[in-house]
Design goal:
Blueprint (H helix, E strand, L loop, with lengths): L13 E11 L5 E11 L3 E3 L3 E3 L4 E11 L5 E10 L24 H8 L7 H28 L30 H6 L19
Antiparallel strand pairs: 1-2, 2-5, 3-4, 5-6
Length: 204
């Protein structure tokens, strides 16, 4: 459903696009690839690139993380196709520092320290946020289907094993463990009002 029509006449100035795709690899690892672009609705000039035409990318960055089923980062590749300055791409290799890290609660804080200030690219670092959430959406939600796609045997489900609370509960309004969705679909983890929650949720 689109937003309501604006009540005041307006003029388009800027467009930012962020796209993230997840791929299961034949070796069982995952590639999570993000792309960010910025473009203006008018022509303008820059000192390093000269004239940038309407619709031409001011920023165009790619970032790929290769992770395993536990979201440990095995590889990281960054590429700058478009930047406002002629040295923007010189810092791409800094994102190799992500190798050995894990996407888990606190990941955003780790990346802010690794790429703080002049250590990184503002836009490339911003791209890590949607990449991390896409990794969660893909690896945890689709792991059984992904193994089926690449022909790996599915792990057996032990009916007597304790059931762990799904990590996405308490991460948004709809999945509040005191709310009706969790009560209906995740009944064992539902906490009525007044009952203390000992697991307040994931914060990347």
């Amino acid at each position: 459903m689109p937003l309501p029509e604006p009540k005041v006449k307006r003029h388009h100035i800027h467009t930012r696009k962020v796209t993230v795709n997840a791929y299961i690899r034949e070796d069982g690892l995952w590639d999570i690839e993000g792309h960010m672009s910025d473009e203006k609705s008018y022509d303008f000039s820059t000192m390093h690139r000269g004239e940038i035409k309407t619709g031409e990318h001011l920023h165009g960055m790619y970032l790929r993380l290769t992770v395993d089923d536990k979201l440990n980062i095995h590889d990281a590749e960054a590429k700058t196709d478009f930047g406002p300055y002629n040295i923007c791409a010189a810092n791409n290799d800094a994102y190799k520092k992500l190798i050995g890290e894990q996407i888990k609660p606190g990941f955003t804080g780790i990346t802010r320290q690794l790429f703080k200030g002049i250590k990184g690219c503002t836009h490339m670092t911003e791209l890590l946020g949607p990449i991390a959430t896409t990794a969660f959406q893909s690896v945890f939600a689709s792991s059984r289907k992904a193994k089926e796609i690449i022909g790996q045997p599915l792990p057996e489900i032990d009916p007597d094993a304790p059931v762990k609370r799904p990590p996405h509960l308490n991460t948004c309004h709809a999945l509040d463990i005191k709310g009706p969705v969790v009560e209906e679909l995740y009944t064992p983890f539902y906490k009525p009002e007044g009952e203390e929650d000992d697991n307040p949720g994931i914060k990347l």
